[in-house]
Amino acid sequence: MTRNLITPAQNTWCPGCGNFALQHTLKDILAGLEKEGRSLDDMVLVTGIGCHAKMADYLAINSVYTLHGRTIPVATGIKLSNPKLTVICCAGDGDAYAEGLDHLIFAAKRNIDITMIVHNNRVYGLTTGQYTPTSPLGFRGKSTPAGTTEYPFNPLELMLAGGATYIARGYTKKMPQLAQLIDQGITHKGFAFIDVLQICASFFNMTDYYQSRVYDLAGYDTADFEKACAKAREWDYNRDAPIALGVFYERALPTFDDRYPTRDLAPDDRERRIRDLFEAAK
Amino acid sequence: MKEVSVLVGGRAGDGINNAGAMVAQLFNHLGYYVYMYTDYPSLIRGGHNFALIRAADTPIGAYNDRIDYLVALNQETITLHLPHCPECTVVANADQVKSLPRGQTVSVNAIIKEESAPPITGNSAMIGAFAKSAGISWEIVGEVFHRHMPKAADENIRVAKKAYDQVQTARPVPAIPGPAHSLLSGNEAIGLGLVAGGLSAYIAYPMTPASTLLHFLAGNAERLGITVIHPENEIAVILMGLGSATAGAKTAVGTSGGGFCLMTEGVSFAGMAEIPIVIVVSQRTGPSTGLPTYTGQADLQFVLHAGQGEFPRLVVAPADPGEAYLWSAAAIHLSWKYQIPAFVLADKTLSEGTYSVDYDRLGSLPAPTPVLWDGEGSYRRYRDTAEGISPLAFPGRKDAVVKVNSYAHDEDGVTTEDAALVTRTTEKRRRKEAQLREELGQYPCVSVQGTSDATTALLCWGSVHNACDEVAAQRGLRVIQPVVLSPFPDQQFSAACRGVKHLIAVEENATGQLAALAREHGVGAEATILKYDGRPFTPEELARRVQEVIAP
């Protein structure tokens, strides 16, 4: 059964928002998976809170619209509870890199088999324009009218240090590549991290900046950790530099969910074992 | 009541808890009911630790002020405790205790050297020496070692026997007829109750006094068929728990007050998104870091109100392992039937205390099942129903689109800000509470003990119940203990209070939090007896304070 992948919910993203590109990309990926014979009943979308998170309302698949910063623990719980599910997180940069940074690093450390897409527009949109952890130094937002006094951090470097086994960067104005990066992330067995540069049409429109600097990573050995680190450092989300797009790093490692086999027992068996523990305490 | 008390003291790191547990088992095998409490500072090594083991011919759940035997692994035990027990029988480790006014000693070092045993067996010497001084037959000592120290039992038995033979019986404890019971801590009982309720996953970050629940379940995960996870912090704990439950696994989390502070956003999320979850909160002395290894009952109002917004929740506060076992299972069943957060509220006294439990006399509580989607029509996660309960389906279910949402949402789980819809879904959740309240009518939500028609009653909750019971038995009082604190069991509570002229609230907090709750429900306590020094009431202390209130 082919389902309509878009819900009737009214779309409230601003005209020109980068989220549309991600929505269409995800929709096409889902349609492709269904065409390959995969059941969309086994897909779960987990979103945080922010403009990106409306994706949960707009895509007609299983979804958990969680709390700000908390996509990863919820997704981890889902995956551990039912490893057959394919779990995709959509999070914002405020979500993933500020409120929920600890979870992001731990997801990488654990290599939980989920896909993390960060809608990185480098500004808080839903709260109407404050700086985020990836806003450039001096960013003038409503909470920093004189400009930020802190440097952004580089999420790719952070994920390399954290132990993520799939690290990529895409851009919403390069949709075919973006689709390929996400698709590959979903296929990847382990924690797949995709930082997606997207513009915020209302509060931080970086279209011209990105257009003139992005380039595709090519002829690059994605298994080479040292090279991946160097490539990730080429642009630090602050000073001017060429901005590479593509897969920076990928390696195969056992996943967290593989190491936690489900071990349900029959109720009778359980009762007997409880009784045994009571008996052993005599 | 025939009873006897032992204090085993030593340095942190001396294995006082294990030594105390062996002494408790000796009494258990002599036919006694047992209660053990360990008093220790928040340290790994150094500092003074002691275990209080009380044995009696009736069930008990409190230690008292008397000490009949003092087992001293170090000098501090003698210095601190001997002045308070002029009559007690003393057994001490001669290597550590250099100044001993009276009592018998054994040289642990000499014994382990003679037996070529490792230093870790040293406590077995002290247990053997104590057993002999208490006139416990060697047959019982050997049996207890075989059952409860299976690792290197022979080595430990040799060491224990050597010490056993070196001391004289000073004050024999008679055996009483009766079987040995299961000696369980409150946390073990909570863990087993959760498993009996169908637990699939337990998720927790270590925090005293809830940590031993994590350790117990992790240690038995394979045997019990559960998954146990220790994530990065308590925020991750509860959100992971909610994810796990969303995908269909019966899940519990556990912590103490400080960790629970971090969980509150998740509690509110569970309320709005209607996700079942059991949250074990074991209280310690607060506020803030407080006294990590001591007890308290100051988080009742916090747990009753934690989380923004209004949503139904179940809060149960068991008094002993029997109640802990039954109500932990009930918490899972009810949280799944009503898709709400359910709390098991314990404290250090219960969580870390060891009690005699009889599996065959636990009784039972109803075990309602979750309402599942029948597969008819298109699935709506938040379908509006008369009872307010929307049938559950989990992601992965064929032809169901399951949309779970922390925002106000429509029946499909899609975000809404529509005023009429928000009103309706709020009322839907309120109906669940009304249904839950009605269903709880079939449960023993309020326990009444002591003299049931006495006009003076002690009002208490949780572990304090045990000391109250003893005082009530001495003075012919009634004891009223609500086990369910939310939704408050108004009918059962007023029935329990019928005929009471003097209601005295007994609580281990500084403000009388249950008394405030009872007042909110139309029953005012005439007096409060409060204690907030981190130590549980002893029956003697409580009896004195009750006397002050009753006959000023």
Strand and helix map with partners:
The complex is a heterodimer of chains A (282) and B (552).
Chain A: H1 19-35, E1 43-47, H2 55-58, E2 62-65, H3 71-81, E3 86-92, H4 93-99, H5 101-110, E4 115-120, H6 155-162, E5 166-171, H7 175-187, E6 192-197, H8 207-211, E7 214-216, H9 225-233, E8 243-250, H10 256-259, H11 267-280
Parallel strand pairs in A: 1-2, 1-3, 3-4, 4-6, 5-6, 7-8
Antiparallel strand pairs in A: 5-8
Helix pairs in contact in A: 1-7, 4-5
Chain B: E1 3-11, H1 16-29, E2 33-39, E3 48-56, E4 69-72, H2 75-81, E5 89-93, E6 104-106, H3 108-114, H4 122-133, H5 138-148, H6 153-166, E7 182-185, H7 186-196, E8 201-204, H8 211-219, H9 221-224, E9 227-229, H10 234-246, E10 251-255, H11 257-273, E11 277-283, H12 300-305, E12 314-316, H13 321-338, E13 341-347, H14 348-352, E14 354-357, E15 403-405, H15 419-439, E16 446-450, E17 456-459, H16 464-475, E18 478-482, E19 484-486, H17 490-497, E20 502-507, H18 513-520, E21 527-530, H19 539-550
Parallel strand pairs in B: 1-4, 4-5, 5-6, 8-9, 8-10, 10-11, 11-13, 12-13, 17-18, 17-20, 20-21
Antiparallel strand pairs in B: 1-3, 2-3, 2-14, 7-14, 12-19, 16-18
